Amino acid sequence: MEKQTVKHDKKVLIALLYVVAVLIILLGASFSIYSAIFDVRFPVLSSSVPGFVFGLVVLFLGVRYIFSLQKLKAELRKSASAFAWSNFGKTKNSKA
């Protein structure tokens, strides 16, 4: 019974992450459209950058996040996947 709740919890968390990724994509696309229509510009250093460029960057990051979520989902579907604190430890590179 415990394994089913873990699988269900994983599905819920992955679905939530997908919702966040889609929101990021939608926000990036809507900001790009808004910036293109109303000619929004941001001062960066000594130049003016169109706002739709920033929207495209957010859109790209959202799409990239979707791809990384697909990889994560594939990793979690493996039967041997389990939480381990050792996955978060720093690795020491020794000079040989």
Describe the structure using short key phrases.
96 residues; 8% strand; single chain; mainly alpha; two-stranded antiparallel ribbon; 2 helices
Which helices and strands appear, and what pairs or packs with what?
Layout: H1 2-38, E1 41-44, E2 47-50, H2 51-77
Antiparallel strand pairs: 1-2
Helix pairs in contact: 1-2
Q: Major β-sheet, in short?
A: 2 strands, antiparallel
Please report which band the strand proportion falls in: under 5%, 5-15%, 15-25%, 25-35%, 35-45% or over 45%: 5-15%
What coarse outline follows from CA principal-axis ratios?
Answer: flat
Roughly how many Å is the radius of gyration? 20 Å
What's the helix-strand series?
HEEH
Proportion of residues in helical segments: 55-70%
Written account of the structure:
- Helices cover 67% and strands 8% of the residues.
- Strand 1 and strand 2 (47-50) form a beta hairpin.
- The model has no long low-confidence stretch (mean pLDDT 84).
- It has 96 residues and is mostly helical.
- The chain has two helices and two strands; from the N terminus they run H-E-E-H.
- It has one domain (2-76).
